[in-house]
Design goal:
This protein is mainly β and 65 residues long. It has no helices and four strands. It has a domain of 39 residues. One of its GO terms (molecular function) is structural constituent of ribosome.
């Protein structure tokens, strides 16, 4: 029987599954050195990381490791 008439939901105290490998954003190549692959690629710094974006060819997207 629950104490004080209050029962905890079963999912609240369940253990969390173990964390797997870090997940990388889909569609980005993760590299140690970035370079522009065409004239339309541009480099952006966001959240302390360097990114390469390209509007004409989205395959050129990169992130610095």
């Amino acid at each position: 029987p629950p104490r004080c008439g209050v029962a905890a939901p079963s999912g609240l105290l369940a253990p969390l599954p173990p964390a797997g490998p870090p997940l990388f954003p889909a569609g980005l190549k993760t590299k140690t050195s970035l370079r522009r692959r065409c004239k339309d690629c541009y480099i952006v710094r966001r959240r302390g990381r360097l990114y390469v974006y390209c509007k004409t060819n989205p395959r050129h997207k990169q992130r610095k490791l």
